[in-house]
Structure formats: structure tokens, C-alpha cells
UniProtKB/TrEMBL annotation:
Highest taxon in the source lineage: Bacteria
Any one GO molecular function term: ATP binding
Name of this protein: Branched-chain amino acid ABC transporter ATP-binding protein/permease
Domain (ABC transporter) ranges: 8-253
Natural source organism: Teichococcus aerophilus
Residue numbers of the full-length protein present here: 342 to 594 of 596
Localisation per UniProt entry: Cell membrane
Keywords: ATP-binding, Cell membrane, Membrane, Nucleotide-binding, Transmembrane, Transmembrane helix, Transport
């Protein structure tokens, strides 16, 4: 999509878990090349919103248009192959497996045959292509020197970067990051911010959930604020910083 063109439009999204309304009538748009922050207190419904956008959970109600296609109700696999990649708040790497193999799992998903069949009947050319892609993405996040280490031996911050490399193997149009800076040290956060800025310059659209407000305010073009499942405010970071309702619900604490 051309820079600034609409990539995703979520409307009237709702998710109920029994009597609990985790996401309540939430709507926003994301445009190509934008980095948008989704912020709010713990339990506000941010991760659930990610799960609705990526087909991990079925919405109770609402619509999600991605590049003009309705994807609400589509499978997670379909949405991923269309170009929406994500990381999880709780890192999901395969324990005991090398960093490179963990990243290559993301490249399998991009293959037409699907991850399982690709793993079972991989021909040499396909395998070479997958590992070349995995190396490329590991270089991109600055972790090539860790390729042959066991993933669980990395720091939590590095494991988050491995997840990002895996997501980048999908060559996503839209990248969703759930608390990518959590557990990162100062220098690692700065490196992550530079990486996300480069991805934005390449035209990628990024939606990120993050509690580190310095990180969020410096990096994002726009913010969506949630509180108790509902949308509290949307706007530019400097306007949101001065919004009394946002300060009261979240920033002031
Ligand atoms: P956030 O990411 O903003 O901290 P979540 O989206 O994880 O918030 O959670 C929103 C609310 O939904 C919380 O009250 C949480 O306990 C609840 N919730 C999340 N996932 C589930 C689930 N699978 N089943 C029941 N309740 C859930
Ligand atoms: Mg969360």
C-alpha cells in the first residue's frame, strides 16, 4: 500500500468472556508507514484486541478490514499469510531449539504449503530459501551472532527480538508488537526503537502495546488509549500526554 493509505480499519469490536466485556466497541484505523501505540492500564483489553485482529480469538461483534478485505472471522493462519504478523506479550519460542530454527519457523509459515507440510516434505531448495530468509531477519534485529545458541539461553529482551525476527519472516504489511520493550535494558530499547524506525521508513505499519512511556512517546505517530475495554482517547502523543482523562486513568499512576 502507498504511504498513508489505509491498511486496517477496526470497527465496533467487542469481545466478551462470559460476563466480562474485555473489548467494548473499539474502533481505529491504521495507515501505511505509521507506528501507532495502543496503551492503557493492565486489563484494559489491549492484548485481547491483538487477538481479535489476528484471529487468535473470535470477536463477539465487529469488523476488521485489512487492505479492504473483511478478516474478522478468518483463521489466524489466513490473516498471517495476508500480511499481519505479531509477537506475544508472553514470549512464545520453542524451548531447546536454536535461535535460527525458531526464526525459520516464521519463514515456514510464509510458504504456500503451510508450516506442517513444509516441515515434513521440505526439499533442499525450499529449506535453503527458508534459512536464508531467517538469517536475513536475524541480522535485521542484530542477533546474527546468537543464531546457534539455544533460544532459552538468551535474555528475555533478546528473546523478544527473536520473536520479532520470526514475525518479519512473513514480510508483513502490518506488524503487531505486544510489549516489545518489556524486560529490555536501556541500550536494547534504543536498538529496538531504531529497528522499528527503520521498518517504518521501509513502509511497514506497526501497532504496538507498550508501557514504557518514553519509548512510546518518542517512537509513535499516534496513540489509541484503552481503559476497561473501551476506547478512552486517540490522538498525537503530545496531545494524549496532556489529556486529563488519560492522565487520570493511566499516565498519572
Ligand atoms: P491488557 O492486555 O490490556 O492488559 P487483556 O486484553 O489481557 O488486557 O485482558 C482484558 C480483560 O480480559 C482482563 O480483565 C482479562 O482478565 C480478561 N481476559 C483476557 N483473556 C481472557 C480469557 N481468555 N478468558 C477470560 N478472560 C480473559
Ligand atoms: Mg496485555
Amino acid at each position: 500500500p502507498a504511504r498513508g493509505a489505509e491498511v486496517l480499519r477496526a470497527s465496533e469490536l467487542r469481545k466478551q468472556f462470559g460476563g466480562l466485556v474485555a473489548v467494548d466497541n473499539v474502533g481505529f484505523t491504521l495507515n501505511a508507514g505509521e507506528v501507532v501505540g495502543l496503551i492503557g492500564p493492565n486489563g484494559a483489553g489491549k492484548s485481547t484486541t491483538f487477538n481479535l485482529l489476528t484471529g487468535v480469538l473470535a470477536a463477539t461483534k465487529g469488523n476488521v478490514a485489512f487492505l479492504g478485505e473483511e478478516i474478522c472471522g478468518s483463521t489466524a493462519r489466513h490473516i498471517a499469510t495476508r500480511g499481519v504478523a505479531r509477537t506475544f506479550q508472553h514470549v512464545k519460542l520453542v524451548r531447546g531449539m536454536s535461535v535460527l530454527d525458531n526464526v525459520a519457523l516464521g519463514a515456514h509459515l510464509r510458504g504456500a504449503a503451510g508450516p506442517l507440510s513444509a516441515a515434513l516434505h521440505l526439499d533442499r531448495a525450499e529449506e535453503a530459501r527458508i534459512f536464508a530468509l531467517a538469517w536475513q531477519q536475524l541480522h535485521r534485529v542484530g542477533l546474527a551472532q546468537c543464531a546457534h545458541l539455544v533460544a532459552d539461553d538468551l535474555s528475555l529482551g533478546q528473546q523478544r527480538l527473536v520473536e520479532i525476527a520470526r514475525a518479519l519472516c512473513l514480510d508483513p504489511v502490518l506488524l503487531l508488537l505486544d510489549e516489545p520493550a518489556a524486560g529490555l535494558r536501556h541500550l536494547e530499547k534504543a536498538a529496538l526503537a531504531r529497528l522499528l524506525d527503520r521498518l517504518r521508513q521501509d513502509g511497514m505499519t506497526i501497532l504496538l502495546v507498550e508501557h514504557d512511556m518514553d519509548f512510546v512517546m518518542n517512537l509513535t505517530d499516534r496513540l489509541v488509549v484503552m481503559n476497561f475495554g473501551a476506547e478512552l482517547a486517540q490522538g498525537r502523543p503530545k496531545d494524549i500526554q496532556g489529556n486529563p482523562a488519560v492522565i487520570d486513568a493511566y499516565l498519572g499512576t
